[in-house]
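Fill-in record for Protein YIP.
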Amino acid sequence: MSYYQPQGPIGGGTGFHQSSGQSPGQFAFPQGSMSFQGPTSGGSGSDSMGISPDPLPTGLFNALSTKGYPHEPPLLEEIGINFDHIIAKTKIVCNPAGSRNALSDEILNDADLAGPLIFFLLFGLFLLLAGKVHFGYIYGVALFGTVSLHNLSKFMGNNESGSPAKLQFFNTASVLGYCFLPLCFLSLIGVFLGLDNTLGYTLGSIFVLWSTWSSSAFLNLLLQLHDARALIAYPLLIFYTVFALMAIFV
């Protein structure tokens, strides 16, 4: 049985002739506007789908790195870790006398938890070097205290503005975690010196007040409160005092 291709328009009366080079059993695809055409390369080195044809570099070091395709954002940026924000917040906490009114809204509302996790791990590590294993207490008090302070802060925002506060839980956790940094200095001192004495009580009070001052300033800006910093500082003082007692007493 032979296969034919039409010549001319349908109904033109020209008939059909047998196609050359076509073996029996093969299907002849029509050559027209419905035929498939592969992607054409653009002038910028990428195809029409916007995918770079350049392959990923091979090797062990490239496999362990965060480098991807040129058009992809860095891996750390995709998972929400911004080192510029971490450094900026750490510098602000380390300078308790500095003004926080110049903070950008992007940094102020950044709910980054990478820095707080690092600080809590450092605090527990320094306590471990001093012979105190308190990792369970650290994360337990941190979780319970963050939930309690977050709800309390939202209630204070409601009373101040008359509308529900837009403070998110991770914003509160980020603020409390970054302002925890001074207590890491206290636990570091406890590795070399005993803190269960007058010197330790004095240093503990200084670092607790440092953390309380910084965190109350952050939350005051987030909630846009007026003349309420002392009120929000009181529960924060209790929160950080619990961690100072872990560092001071055996």
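KEY FINDING: The CA atoms of residues 116 and 177 lie 4 Å apart.
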